[in-house]
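Morning run. Coffee first, then this:
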Amino acid sequence: MNSRYTGLVVRFVLAGVLLLAGWQMLAHGSTTEAQRARESADLIADYTPTCDGKTMGRRDTCLVFGGSGDEGGSYQHMTDRYAAANSPEKLAERDRNWRVTGTVALGIGGLTLLFFILSLIEAVRFGLGQPQEATLSYQRRIVGLFVAVGMAVGGVALIGEVGNFWSWLLAVAGVLFTAGALASLVSAWRTRVGRPRWAKKHGYAYEHFNKDLMDRLGWSNVRPYAGGVVTGTHRDRAFLVFDYAEKDARHTGLVLGLPDEVPPLVVEAQEKMGARLLNGTAQHWANHATQVVAAADRHYPWAFKASGKTIWAKYDEFISPSGKRLSKRLDGLHRVGTDLVALPPS
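And here it is:
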């Protein structure tokens, strides 16, 4: 079962559960004043105080040691306390809480259903065989943002009404999901909208999805497809920019051609403390280690690799890079690649 099919099933089931639960909560909390008065009278009439599991008599007193001190008392005191807790006014407050919770559940369920419909349309458009994460639908992420905001607003509303653990949990989760949804939306927009615009502006070719690019590049331990693929020439050198998946993480890859061949080389990212590490099996890199590190520090502080007539790197930040950042990274790879090729032979 692929991830797109699984996502559709999960969203459909979740929407159904939320809508059904919300409807039940609204129905449970939609009582009339006469119904609450009758329910209150029945609850109070059927109540008999107990103490330590034993039914109390009218002259009994329940002594409770420890606790809040509100559990025990005389038979009349406990009866009055129960009557106050189940008065029509308290039942009206209970029903209001049910209605608020039900409304929140219905709202989130409705947005989740819309999320499912948009995902279904996308699946029909791109096909169930295409992995869900390859398309980066920003429309669905907008719905996800609304769901997260709905959770946060609903949680805050419940805090004002009941203030229990679950209302706080819903509010905190909503805030965290909102932050994540905003970041995901910005990232998707940069790839689905910003990247094609960047490609068009500079005369590059753009491809929404490529099913076997990673296999053709020979990259191991990654999924074969790539999304948001841009191809072109940057300062007289061919390049590729694309998004790819490695296990459960997304990355943006940058591949740039070199004017001449170089031995395999791996250069780690620049650290605030300590020497920058490079790994190359050829004696050539050992002989020029100082120059390689200097060129990398000067032009490309991030990690990169080179081999043959290619230099490449991946963009690891959570939010997808803008066109301006991609141009900056390609410039850096171009400069460091030029310096690597220019090193005298060993």
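Residues 263 and 304 are 14 Å apart (CA to CA). Good start to the day.
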